[in-house]
Amino acid sequence: MTDHALWLLRQDARLAELATFPFNFDLARADHDHVEPVRLASGGPLEAVAGDDTGGTYFVCADGSVLYADSEGSAGIIGSSVDEALEILIGLPGWHDYMDLSPEDGEKTILARIAEIEDEIREDYSIDAERAELRTALGLPERSPVELVGLLHAALLRTEPDFLLLNGEELCAYDLLDRHPRPPLWEPVLAQGRADLALLRAGDRAVWDAVPEDPVRRRLALRAAQFDRVEGDHGLLRHLMRHEASSSMTDELRLAAVLVGLRGDVSDLPLLHEVRETDYDTHCGLSEIPQPGAGAAELLRWAQELDDSLFGTDPADEPLCTWTELALDQGMTEIARVALIRRLDEIVMDQGTLRRAGDPKRLETSRLSSLARELERAGDLLQALRAQRLYATLQDTAWDRVSARLTQARLERGSGQLPYAASTLRSLRDILADPGDDSFRHWRGVNLGRFIAEEHYALTRALADAGLPADARTVLTAADAILGELSENAANGVRELAEQTAERVREVS
Fold first, then answer.
1. Whether the predicted model's global pTM rises above the 0.90 cut
2. How far apart are CA 178 and CA 97, in angstroms?
3. Using one digit for the tens of pLDDT, what is the confidence trace for 126-161?
């Protein structure tokens, strides 16, 4: 597809006027900013090429797709190119009223809706002659309304994950323009695991050797087996479990043990205990496996209780992190990013979603720290920082407040927000001076104390490298003071970094 039609509109005032009215694609509005700063979550470029009289804006993305953002916080792809988008806008005046239609609605329903809307439009102004003139002048084909609805539907469904639009300042996501159903996150994430599980069941020797040796494929195959349980899987589950133990204690190792245990065969106990004794972590994580000599009923009861509390057979019941972690493992970064940002937005809009089921007066803030870690892993430091900042404000004890701000400062430094990082470390030092409780009384002799000193030196170096020697000296002074308070063992691991940082500050001063 091309943007030839856009070029023609820009060259011909008459055509541009027709596009503006009656088809509400106004090139002049591209010179005005959207109602708020926006950016793509994926970081790709956006070029505003037109707007409409409701405050909406048409953006062209890197691949030529046209993203429409309205003034109410919704956005979506409406064409794979400007040419295609114009086909839809010209062929379907009032296209906003057709976003809920899909080819599955059938030709009769689609045509009836279009006839109704266009008759209403014609009561106020003409569209037929203008449509014919503009189509011809722009060289656009005369597609049927049904075909155009199909193009619009297909375009809308491409909005996520690659074209998620964010408010450029608050970083919250725009809603989708449409409400068409999408596949749940677990479907694309689990696709490889399902395929591998089918080949394992078919006895494919190449897969039998390759999947267990690949940690990601192995985990996916075990998850696929969790949701598609077959009596004949016993051998392959034992095979996968042996290899999963090489990754130490993982959720998938526990899952494999449960799936094996659900068979209730005491002959599996020697293998279960062998796996349990792989290392210290597996010994602790699988400590409740029934002892050798236990009966089938005890083995089955153990497996069923864990299955009921941790696993089950419905992928929709799995926590979001199960699927986002597996998505990131497979390089599905944008799929994971969208899901994580949407979840973060839910929490930001309603912190009540963090309330603990058994104790609604308390918040389960660990969900926010998990989101921050996964967003950082996805390479989105700004979204990770958004989650971490909220997490930090919700901490109660001195230890937790300091730990949260330490991570916040690191993310601010990593994203280039050096003044914010310096401010965060100042607030951290204020807590050190007046903790308000005794949770932090031993900080000078533990790893957290060393980490605090290291982050101060890291920020000092970043400020020096950024050409801010005065700020660097201020943070260096604070870093040296913290170093002086550490125990001998804690300080020993920081002194070389302190000397190197001080030298760098002298170089730029």
1. yes
2. 10
3. 999 999 999 999 999 999 999 999 999 999 999 999
